[in-house]
Amino acid sequence: MRPRIDAGQLLRGLIGEVVETVTGKSNHINGVSGDFVYVGIDKSPNGVKTRTSDLQKALDILQLSGSLPVNPETVGFRSSFIFAVLRTLPGVQTSARPKRVWYPDS
């Protein structure tokens, strides 16, 4: 079993970085505070508040099952951002249509 990845820790490691969505939109990780990450996007460069718990849920499912379809039904409203962050994990593979993340050894 893979060690649990902490969403807050992962996001703090990405502060100042840009993660791209499948469509190529840039999401700038501005900061993390409590259960929120502040994500700069075109319409709101100073940051849109997003719950880290939504990412944690996705990370936990991915760890347990080895695969995760990434859409609003499975990970919540900011699924494109969550997918962009999940793509940064070492060893994961992704598909854009449908959006899915998996570990090849699962």
Topology:
Blueprint: H1 7-13, E1 18-20, E2 26-33, E3 36-41, E4 44-51, H2 52-65, E5 67-69, H3 72-75, H4 79-86, E6 93-96, E7 99-102
Antiparallel strand pairs: 1-2, 2-3, 3-4, 5-7, 6-7
Descriptive report:
The protein is of the alpha+beta class. The chain has one domain. Helices cover 31% and strands 34% of the residues. The protein contains four helices and seven strands; from the N terminus they run αββββαβααββ. It has helices at 7-13, 52-65, 72-75, 79-86, and strands at 18-20, 26-33, 36-41, 44-51, 67-69, 93-96, 99-102. A four-stranded antiparallel sheet has the order 1-2-3-4. The protein has a three-stranded antiparallel sheet with strand order 5-7-6, covered by helices on one side. A hairpin with a 5-residue loop joins β1 and β2. The radius of gyration is 13 Å and the shape is globular.
* Order of strands in the sheet with most strands: 1-2-3-4
Count every helix, treating DSSP H or I runs of 4 or more residues as helices.
4
Task: Give the integer mean of the pLDDT values.
Answer: 93
From the structure provided, what is the oligomeric state, counting identical versus distinct chains?
A: single chain
The share of residues in helices is 25-40%
Task: Please describe the structure with a list of short key phrases separated by commas or semicolons.
106 residues; alpha+beta; four-stranded antiparallel beta sheet
